[in-house]
Amino acid sequence: MTQENKPGWKLEQSYTQLPDLFYTRMEPTKVEAPKLVVFNKSLAENLGLANEPDIKVLAGNEWPEGSLPIAQAYAGHQFGNFTMLGDGRAVLLGEQVTPKGTRFDIQLKGSGPTPYSRAGDGRATLGPMLREYMISEAMHGLGIPTNRSLAVAATGEDVRRETDQPGAVLTRVSESHLRVGTFEYAVQWGTVEDLRLLADYAIQRHYPEALEDENKYLSFYRKVVERQAFLIANWQLVGFIHGVMNTDNMTISGQTIDYGPCAFMDVYDPKTVFSSIDHEGRYAYQNQPAIGQWNLARLAETLLPLIHHDQEQAVQIAQEVLSDYGKIYNRAWLNGMRAKLGMITEEDQDKALIEDLLEIMETNGTDYTNTFRALTLDQTERLEMAGITTFVNWHKQWKKRLERQPQSEAEAFSLMKRSNPSVIPRNHLVEEALEAAVERKDFRVMERLMEVLKDPYAYTQEQDLYTDLPDPTDRPYRTFCGT
Ligand code: AMP
Ligand code: MG
User: Fold this and answer.
1) 166 phi/psi in degrees, rounded to 5
2) Do residues 110 and 91 lie in contact, with contact meaning Cβ atoms separated by under 8 Å?
3) Which residue ranges in the chain fall short of pLDDT 70?
4) N or C: which end of the chain has fewer CB within 10 A?
5) Residue of 248, 258, 266, 367 with catalytic role
6) Which of 299, 292, 248, 243 is CA-nearest to residue 83?
């Protein structure tokens, strides 16, 4: 094996080509007693890394040759209010160039204070980092664009929260960490030239095909709109609630980022909110598509001077593109729902049939994932609402709809299997895994859960064990930010 293709870190740092205002050189703060708690072997392999995890790097005590650690500056609208932010507890080591030549940001989260920490301590705790690891990898298994998790390292240091908690560092792997908030930052604190350099960098990195276009900045904007519409439609289809869709948590690449207060919906209720700080339900399940559009409008505002020298014309052109968001989203959602219901052909009444089912689910308080799973397995007699007239009638209509298409029922069910996860990271399963790991240092519960979440469309017997619902409690599930 030559040096060239020997597995290992092959880090570069392209972000520092940008003007200084976009980042601060910032090394991770060394930790006392680093210990690896989880490591993602298959991701390591994809990245071209050695099989043996490099705990010194994963904990932030050393960084490989080629890396140039920085904290990135960004701003963002948090719950609608504009604020200066930045990597307050993360350091970007650099970009790993994989054997296939793709570039991925390698970021340590929880790696100590930075100039952007404000009042924070720059640290992260074990439970929430393991939670991010599990949910981000589950999203990847579901086939939804997302940043991924390479490892969690315990630091051997306590972190002060409401009580003292074990500290941890998560290694996050992303196509990049460019956010809508990075552009907002450039407009607020940079010149138009800074903004242009940022946009050129983003285009080069994520949408090089736009370089050929007459108005590359407009094409760039259109592509971000398309990817975000697609992403959010995919969230809706699996019942994922992000929980904190601030503009700093919306990527330019179209990957899901920031697994703080996110959670999967169980009972179908469009108003579902899990985040403890989202009192008004701004980021409720049903609001996610519209918030996506709101965030993309903030991105458009930043790009206006690049799109056209005449502001009025720039606004008009950008608005036309943004107005397509709804169409792209609706098409992605409708096609996704068709697939979930085995509809291979298209009929005008499909949307109404889908909406009827959702309404019946809402009225009867049925579990979102398990309803589609029961339909997929043709085992609806197991559903609690099996005998309810509205559902019985809907089911007949649906069966007739499937009979009207030329494809066989087997083909329809096979499509449904590929479109409806048998298992999702349910809140009680994630909590059980975390409790075992954090309280009892037993990581097997989490490993087994991760194993079944790897391919949620496999419909294995093992997965059946993970489809039970928790006993009902009167306490709603709550999630937290910045933990
Ligand atoms: P988030 O809610 O994770 O999107 O974080 C919002 C902002 O708060 C980002 O600038 C984070 O870097 C920062 N932040 C969150 N937790 C901490 C912490 N423990 N120390 C310093 N900064 C933090
Ligand atoms: Mg964030």
Assistant:
1) -65, 135
2) no
3) 1-4
4) N
5) 248
6) 248
